[in-house]
Specification:
Largest sheet: none
Number of helices: 7
Number of domains: 2
Mean pLDDT: 87
Low-confidence stretches: none
Structural class: mainly alpha
Length: 225
């Protein structure tokens, strides 16, 4: 029995993707890996592996049989287009500022007085991925679409809670409260926009048309409504 071209291939790809992310929560394994390659090296390798596995999952979904669970309506195609600007800004802002709470460039140099996008969420990259997967689930009402986007969306919903608990243990209650204070309570929008800066906002917004143009080349389908 061949692995490719069916749902077994997609289920295996999704299972490996989810297992790889779960393994980072195994403390002895994580500490051993960090001791071997350093914290920066660990998260660098983790990011590369996550990207490769995500590409595998998408390729397996494209290769799977098409079985429709709900028909695509014209309005559904607007969901990804409307969500992607916010998702891209969250990705750019999250990947270019220190963050002691979530995945990203690490917490070295983080200033709780000027936390940037952390004023909005401690997990900007994860919530960007959540917007991406949730918005893409709406128009992709096939078995393959659900197997691809629903687990990723659920992972993004559970991930922040798991990471918050882990970081709180690592930092200690007092340090956690001090660093997390700007991300709790009402959002100071003027301060948030000033700290994120127009360069990150513009870079995030410019990423949208770039991804839209690459979409037909990589996925084989036009993303435009």
């Amino acid at each position: 029995m061949t692995l490719t071209g069916g749902y077994i291939h997609l289920v295996v790809a999704v299972a490996v993707f989810l297992a790889a992310h779960s393994l980072t929560n195994v403390r002895p394994l994580r500490e051993h890996a960090m001791a071997a390659v350093g914290k920066g090296g660990f998260y660098g390798v983790y990011s590369v592996i996550s990207t490769v596995l995500l590409v595998w999952v998408v390729a397996a979904a494209l290769d799977a049989p098409v079985v429709v669970l709900w028909p695509q309506q014209p309005w559904m195609r607007w969901a990804p287009s409307l969500a992607m600007p916010a998702a891209c800004v969250l990705w750019v802002a999250g990947m270019t500022r220190p963050n002691p709470f979530s995945i990203g460039p690490g917490g070295r140099g983080f200033d709780p007085a000027r936390p940037g996008v952390i004023r909005l969420t401690r997990h900007p990259i994860i919530w960007g991925l959540g917007l991406w997967s949730g918005a893409h689930l709406i128009p992709n009402g096939t078995v393959a679409g659900v197997l691809l986007f629903l687990p990723l969306f659920l992972l993004c919903l559970a991930g922040p809670r798991v990471l918050d608990a882990k970081r709180r243990r690592q930092l200690g209650p007092e340090q956690w409260e001090r660093l997390a204070a700007p991300s709790r309570g009402p959002v100071d929008w003027p301060a948030l926009l000033a700290e994120v800066g127009w360069v990150r906002l513009l870079a995030g917004l410019l990423l949208v048309p770039a991804l839209m143009e690459l979409h037909p080349l990589v996925i084989g389908l036009s993303p435009y409504p």
